[in-house]
Amino acid sequence: MQGAIAAGHPVTAAVGARVLAEGGNAVDAAVAAAFSSWVTESPLTGPGGGGFMLVHRARDDSMRLLDFFVSVPSGSIDPAAMDTIDVDFSSEAVTPYLIGPASAAVPGVPLGLEAAWRQFGSRPWPELVEPAIALARDGVELIQPQAYLHELLSSILRFRPDGQALYAVELGGRLRMPELADTLRRIADEGAAAVYTGELANAVCEAAPQISPEDLAGYRVIRRRPVSVPFRGCEFRSNPPPSSGGLLIAYGLRLLDAWGRYDACAVADAMREQAVARAGSFLSKLYRGGLARSLIGPVDSPSMTTHIAVVDGKRNAASLSCSTGAGSGVFVSGTGIHLNNMLGESDLAGLHKPGERLTSMMAPSIVLSDGRPRLVVGSAGSARLRGAILQIVVNVLARGLDVAAAVEAPRIHWEDGIVHAEPGADVTGLDSVRQWKRRDLFFGGASAVELLADGSLAAAGDPRRGGAGVVVE
Questions:
Q1: How far apart are CA 251 and CA 443, in angstroms?
Q2: In angstroms, rounded to a whole number, what is the distance separating the alpha carbons of residues 272 and 260?
Q3: CA 404 to CA 273: how far, in whole Å?
Q4: Alpha helix segments (H runs only) across 139-177
Q5: Which residues contact 267 (CB under 8 A, 6 or more apart)?
Q6: CA distance 157 to 155
Q7: pTM for this one?
Q8: Collapsed DSSP state (helix, strand, coil) of residue 131
Q9: Half-sphere exposure of 18 (CA within 13 A, CB side)
C-alpha cells in the first residue's frame, strides 16, 4: 500500500490520496489536502486560522509537534467591540460566539504548512498548492454535510456583504472562491511569506486593526515535544501545553487504564475528571509548566475545526488539525481570507501577552505500537473534540473495533453534570442523560487512519460531517 488518508470532505481526502499515489509522503499529502480544505471546508479552516501538525518520521522513529496556532496581537483587545452570535446545534444546544474584526488573532496556518513541508516534505511546493487553486477557481459542489455547516454558521458566514455574496450557493451548486484562488497562486509562487509581508499582510491589518504588520512579520512556527502516555500497551502522543486538548485526553486515557474500565460509565467519569482538572488555575499552569507531569504521572472553545490523518507507505504519519474558530465573519478585502475569531472564544480567553500563543483544545494525535503508527486521529468539535478522540482511541484499542466502526459509533459528552448522548449510545448506569435525536457534529467530526497487524491500512472520515477515508493501493 502507498498509504491512507482520512479527512473531513471527500475532495480533501481525494487530493491527499492523489499525492500519495504520485509518490508523495504523509506530510506532502497532509499539506496538499490542507490547502484544498480551504475551499472544500471553508467554514472551518483557511489561511486566516491556526493549527498544529504532529509528525512521526519512520526512518528515525522521531515525533515532533509543529505549533502554528494563532497568537495574541499587539493591539488592544476589546470584547465589547465584538458581536455576539448564537449557533444552534440541531435545536439541542445553543452556543454563543463573539465575532467581528476585533475577534481576530494573528493567523499561523500558511506559515505552518510551509514549515512542515520544508522539514518533512518531498514534493515540489507549487505541486501541493495547485489542486487548491483549481478548486477555488472551478468551484466545489456543495454536498449535504457542508450545506448543513453553511446553515449552522450562516449568521457568521453572511455577517457582511462579501460573505453573503460568497455563500449565496445552495445544495448541489458550486462554491467558487476566485479571490482565494489568487491568494493561493501567490502562496504557490512566493511561499507563505506572501501572507505575512507586503500587500496581503497590509490588507489583513486593515481588516483587523489590532493585528500589526510587525505581528505578522514576526510570527514563527514553534516545534514542541508531544505529550505522551501509555494506554493498553501502546503509546498515545498528542498536542502538548500550552494547548490543553492533548493533555486532557492523555489524562482521561491514563485514568481509564488505571481503573481497568472502558465502558460508557467509565468514559463519562473520565470526562468529569477532565472537567475538574480544567477548573481553577489550570490555564495559568499550562503556561508555567509541570502540569503534564502532575496529570499523567502515576494516578492517585468552542471552535470549529477540521482534521486530516495520513499514513504513507513507509509508515510516516501526519496528524493535522486546523481551525478558524467559528470564523469572525470578516473577509479580508480582495484576498478571500476569512479571519479567525479566536480572541472571542471563551475556551481560549485567559492570561496572555502579545506574541504569545493562545491555548487550544485541538489535539492531533498518533498512537504508536512497537514504534509504528497504530492509529492517527484527530477531531473537530471544540470542547467536545477531546471526548471524540478519547472514545475513538478506546473503541479501537480497548474494544477492538475497526477504525470505521470506531469513528461511527455513537458518542457521549459530559458537561456541567449532564451526559449528552447520541442515539444508540450505551447510557446504562448513567445519571442525568440528555438523549439527542440524531448524530450531530456537536459530538465532533473525526478523521482517523489505522495500521493493522498484517500491515494493511484503513481510513475513516466522520459521517457526522461528510468525512471520507481513502486507502491508496
A1: 20
A2: 17
A3: 28
A4: 144-152, 154-157, 161-166
A5: 252, 256, 387, 390, 391, 394, 412
A6: 6
A7: 0.95
A8: helix
A9: 15
Q: How many residues does the chain have?
A: 473
Nearest to 200 by CA among 35, 333, 354: 333
pLDDT grade for 292, boundaries at 50, 70 and 90: low
- pLDDT of 165: 94
Q: What angle do CA 79, 341, 308 make, to 5 degrees?
A: 155
CA 70 to chain centre: 13
Q: List, by residue number, the catalytic residues.
A: 305
Cell triple for residue 35? 490547502
- Direct distance between the N- and C-terminal alpha carbons of the chain, in angstroms, rounded to an integer: 4
Question: How are beta strands 433-435 and 418-421 bridged, if at all?
Answer: parallel
Place of cell 460531517: 465
What residues pair up with 174 in beta bridges, in sequence order?
Answer: 141
**Rounded Cα distance, 195 and 129, in Å:** 14
Band the pLDDT of 298: cuts 50, 70, 90.
very low
Residue type at position 436: W
Name the phi and psi angles at 41, rounded to 5: -125, 40
Cis peptide before 242 (omega within 30 of 0): yes
* Gap between the Cα atoms of 304 and 383, Å rounded: 10
CB 456 within 8 A of CB 315: no
pLDDT tens per residue across span 5-46: 999 999 999 999 999 999 999 999 999 999 999 999 999 999
CA distance 32 to 18: 9
Q: By the 8 A CB rule, do 16 and 29 touch?
A: yes
- Whether 381 and 422 have beta carbons less than 8 Å apart is answered as no
